[in-house]
Design brief:
The longest helix has 19 residues, at 177-195. This protein starts with 8 loop residues before the first helix and ends with a helix. Helix 5 packs across helix 7 (240-251) and helix 6 packs across helix 7. The chain has eleven helices and ten strands. Among the domains are: 44-195, Sandwich (Jelly Rolls), CATH 2.60.120.280; 271-313, no CATH class. The protein is of the alpha+beta class and 314 residues long.
């Protein structure tokens, strides 16, 4: 497994505060207590087997859930950000949250697949590492280990787990079905992490995992307000340049681009509320005005906010 190591030259040269500085302790890094999600809370929003006819097309969209496909027969295509992935029988695809994508078939063949949607917040309460800066959770690990998606040939472990999830979801009225589903999802995510070849390891030095985890949590909590990267870097006692380089290395997106995508997705979640105008939505997710919101929305989604709102209402 190849690990990428990034070092902050300003801090390595002594111009800044090193991690090992005697006056910098874990207490200086603001942490919040982790809230463990109860296992009885439902995470799955859909788990079933589907059949789509030749020529089917689901246009570009974005959502905050994790989406899994296991192709049973035929083939399909997915445009994921700037890439086109051709999935065939026996393939496994897992799309990460806040990733623009589409799903479509050619005009020659049908496609059957197992399809699962679930809320990734389940994994935000499972701590894999805690070095005193910011706990690194299972959700962080999933985001760190892939840019936009996980794609490989399925195997018997994945097949059995997906079949189990679909069966449990169909009998969701049983006493412990939600807990069984959540445990199965956790096991599946850990297996996928072990199976994948990540660009970063949880053993990465210089507390890099925690720096990015802290930044992601900060964005999640403050996206509705003005976010200044320098403020986050100061809280972490690292340089803004280092944080910018580290964030892009882990997330595959620049800091401003990630925030824009995050805000756009939050705005899409508000669109079904007819009591909110598009201006109301824009202001509530951190944009200063509707004009800037529309410009960013068009760049991210390739449609105007009003067009997309009509699309999801169909």
């Amino acid at each position: 497994m190849k690990n990428t190591v990034l070092c902050d030259p300003e801090y390595a040269s002594g111009k800044g505060v090193k991690n090992t500085h005697p006056h910098v302790s874990a207490d200086m890094f603001p942490q919040k207590s982790m809230c463990i999600m109860p296992l009885y809370k439902a995470s799955l929003s859909g788990a079933l087997e589907e059949l789509r006819s030749a020529g089917y097309h689901f246009s570009h969209h974005i959502h905050s859930s994790i989406e899994i496909y296991r192709i049973l027969s035929g083939d399909c295509y997915m445009d994921i950000r700037s890439q086109t992935v051709h999935c065939t029988e026996g393939d496994f695809m897992m799309l990460l949250p806040d990733v623009m994508h589409s799903f479509y078939l050619n005009d020659k063949s049908d496609c059957s697949f197992q399809h699962i949607h679930f809320d990734p917040e389940l994994f935000a309460g499972i701590v894999l590492e805690n070095n005193g800066i910011q706990p690194v959770t299972l959700l962080h690990a999933i985001l760190f280990n892939s840019r936009s998606y996980y794609y490989f040939r399925s195997d018997c472990i994945i097949d059995n787990t997906i079949n189990k999830l679909i069966s449990l979801y169909a009998s969701s009225n049983s006493l412990f079905s939600a807990a069984n589903i959540n445990v199965s999802l956790i096991q599946l995510m850990l297996y996928i992490l072990d199976k994948s070849e990540p660009p970063h390891s949880l053993t990465a030095p210089q507390r890099q995992n925690s720096y990015v985890a802290y930044t992601l949590n900060y964005i999640k909590e403050h996206y509705a307000k003005k976010i200044i990267q320098e403020d986050i870097a100061n809280q972490l006692h690292i340089s803004t340049r280092y944080l910018s380089k580290l964030f892009k290395s882990y997330m595959g997106l620049s800091f401003p681009h990630y925030i824009n995508i995050y805000r756009i997705n939050r705005s899409i979640e508000l669109m079904p509320n007819h009591n909110l105008s598009l201006t109301d939505i824009a202001l509530s997710v951190g944009f200063n005005d509707s004009q800037h919101y529309s410009k960013v929305f068009m760049k991210v989604v390739n449609a105007s906010p009003s067009q997309y709102r009509k699309l999801i209402q169909k």
